[in-house]
Amino acid sequence: MFVHFFHELKKANVPVSLREYLMLLEAMDSDVIDRKVEDFYYLSRAALVKDERNLDKFDQVFGHVFKGLDLMNEGQTAEIPEEWLRKLTEKFLTEEEKAQIEALGGWEKIMETLKKRLEEQKERHEGGNKWIGTGGTSPFGAYGYNPEGVRIGQKEGRHGKAVKVWDKREYKNLDDSVELGTRNIKVALRRLRKFAREGAPTELDLDDTIRSTAHHGYLDIKMVPERRNKINLLVFFDIGGSMDSHIKLCEELFSAARTEFKNMEYFYFHNCLYEGVWKDNKRRHNEKMSTWDVLHKFPADYKVVFVGDASMSPYEITYAGGSVEHWNEEPGGLWMERVTQIYESCVWLNPIAEKHWEYTPSLQILKQIMGERMYPLTLEGLDKAMRELSR
Amino acid sequence: MKFEGTENYVATEDLRVAVNASITLQRPLLIKGEPGTGKTVLAEEVAKALNAELITWNIKSTTKAHQGLYEYDAVTRLRDSQLGDERVKDIRNYISKGKLWESFERDARPVLLIDEIDKADIEFPNDLLQELDRMEFYVYETNETIKARQRPIVIITSNNEKELPDAFLRRCFFHYIKFPDEDTMRAIIDVHFPGLKGKLVQDALNIFYEIREVPGLKKKPSTSELIDWLKLLLSEDISLEALREKDPSKLIPPLHGALLKNEQDVHLFERLAFLARRERN
């Protein structure tokens, strides 16, 4: 009956299974709902979608299948690169403006505005050397307003009617296929716990108690010590400069790791690891610790995590004296190699989206030094990184 | 058996459909949503509306799946065997029933609330698959199978701290309680404070949504906080004028402690309010 709908959902990467489809049919059969399309929408949503992240995708597919609307009209965005669009909406359209556009104007209007903005943007950036990837206003930023969302205005404008529930796409924000949202970061960080929780704590050793009781002839309770998390973690955070736009992400990662790992040590560095690291950013010039001391102090079974965007001039890695803030006797790359040689398990977590990595040479160099163990700071990336570390 | 919301609980259309589907098809209903949007209360209200008993199983980080079924107290039995207690011969004396077992035993269909399932270990939901699916389980100690007399209405809440396994999700209906819009919110307030002055509600709601829109808040106030705040406002008899106070020395709304639960948030809000006022002047 709704096989087409089901297949469209599959195609849109909503994880639906036959079981859920049958459940929906069963519900239809037992007259749970009245014969109203809204009710059918609610019912199928409850039966088929099991994660709020997929609600937005579901809404789109529903609108597409049951209204014959164009799903994602790629053609219209072809003239402007998507990052620009995303960046522009993020930067120039406030929530109110977005609402205004959705309420009043159509796509043409939006395009017009965007084009205007785009021109401004061009002018402003002609003087600069590189627009993409400069500090603080990264187009890879994690807080974009989905350009697909803007297109809702088109549907609405053309028909001039009230929007259907699914066309409102209220769950837009929860779609995480692009990057981590604040709430999803929390979920992702809990994955660190999974890895740290190896061996659940046991208090009473029942087997040994029974064995011992039988042996001695009196009740002899045996206890085993609680098994602790034995993982030692050494974290290096890149701080300042281009990392400023990722502060929130790093803050949360830091606090979660802090509570999760009893033996966690952290140090800060800037852009690339050199001969000195520090623990307090306010006193970074007075209280630097020699990197050699760090490497000598912590044994090789420590797991090492670097957090940084790895975006800098390649000279900062490959040449002595390449650092932007001091004269370094040895190139940063050498220091990175030393770390990877001493510590078997190390990973690099990068807040920049993976699809943009290839455009930054310094990132490629560091990735190579890390032995390809660089992961994006997303749900999936964090999971992979933790798996790599627990190997 | 149909759930239509109660006089104490405003259920949106989509929530009603989800609850009714899960009741009719006898499948568990998984509820997610921001903290304070009434996930746990839903189960209580469903029980009340259907005139059914509510059995609550609160999950903690140390909860194991079998604790919901039954627990076998081996140590007491060992001790009793030492003392020559007669009860020791029957293993049934040392099996204590869990919440799931309890709900299976009821003659009338109960509502079983499994609260905050994400608090438990990652494997927890998987361990309950069979039990929730077939509504039966096997007691190894006594070699018997416990089967539900009436399939209980199972409502599960999650705060999204951990991802739940797919196999588990496939067996449930799912509903995400989104944050109520202003109309729904008004209905909710009306349910809690019938006959509240319209203007006060309006002003309070304006302030409330304003606070929620402040960027960078660590914990946005939710429905339950709004209700608490209104309760405070009423008991302190705060006047309309106080709510509309534009005096720069009183930048944040009265009794803000009920809305902002975090020192940093209060500071942030003060700073922003200060900036806003300065721009206006």
TrEMBL record, chain A:
InterPro entries hit by this protein: Uncharacterised_CoxE
Pfam families: VWA_CoxE (PF05762)
PANTHER family tied to this protein: BLL5662 PROTEIN-RELATED, BLL6692 PROTEIN
Protein name: VWA domain-containing protein
UniProtKB/TrEMBL annotation, chain B:
UniProt xrefs under InterPro entries: AAA+_ATPase, ATPase_AAA_core, CbbQ/NirQ/NorQ/GpvN, P-loop_NTPase
SUPFAM superfamilies named among the record's database cross-references: P-loop containing nucleoside triphosphate hydrolases
Domain AAA+ ATPase: 25-183
GO molecular function: ATP binding; ATP hydrolysis activity
Protein name, as recorded: AAA family ATPase
Originating species: Parvibaculum sedimenti
Taxonomic classification: Bacteria, Pseudomonadati, Pseudomonadota, Alphaproteobacteria, Hyphomicrobiales
